[in-house]
Write a structure and sequence with these properties.
This protein is of the alpha+beta class. The protein contains four helices and eight strands. The chain has two domains: 3-82, GMP Synthetase, Chain A, domain 3; 93-163, Roll (SH3 type barrels), CATH 2.30.30. The radius of gyration is 17 Å and the shape is globular.
């Protein structure tokens, strides 16, 4: 779906999410494979990475009102509000700082050294460049050129979540 539309939706709902004490992580609109209602997926979390079912319900109620009034989507859709989860998407520069040390998958808009897909250990950020160790070679990836990135579910990630539950 159009990134212009999801950017517009993010701009509409982010002030409300912020006012509730949460941070917007991602907005995505998925088409139904069978032609039914699309799904508007909103991911949010508290500054410490936590999220409760009650908070998801509150955010959902509050942004539903905005979506009904502003009506940016001209077709039927289902609103889904959730936490990013363990194998979370990395959408903000601070995500690449906070999750340094974990295995990450990155897809680039443009090829870097003749490749668009990378999987390796996230080393952090340096001057808005994402540092990723892929089998001993460190790649410096421009944050603005990342199409999508997410943590990979590993034993280390699960152990970290268990040791520091959010």
């Amino acid at each position: 779906m159009s990134s212009m539309l999801t950017d517009k939706i993010a701009a509409l709902i982010e002030p409300t999410i912020d006012s509730l004490g949460y941070e917007l992580v991602r907005v995505q609109l998925f088409s139904s494979p069978r032609g039914g209602a699309s799904t508007l997926q909103i991911m949010a979390e508290a500054a410490d990475g936590t999220m409760t079912v009650e908070a998801c319900a509150k955010i959902s109620r509050d942004i539903s009102v905005i979506m009904d009034v502003e009506d940016p989507i001209n077709s039927e859709y289902v609103l889904e509000v959730s936490s990013p989860g363990l194998d979370r998407p990395l959408t903000r520069l601070k995500d690449f700082v906070n999750y340094a040390g974990f295995e990450t998958k990155v897809e680039m808009d443009q090829a870097v050294d003749k490749r668009r897909r990378f999987r390796g250990k996230l080393l952090g950020v340096e001057d808005e460049l994402i540092l990723l160790d892929v089998e001993g070679e460190v790649y410096k990836l421009h944050f603005d050129d990342i199409q999508k990135a997410k943590l990979v579910m590993t034993d280390e990630l699960a152990a970290a979540a268990t040791a520091n539950p959010s």
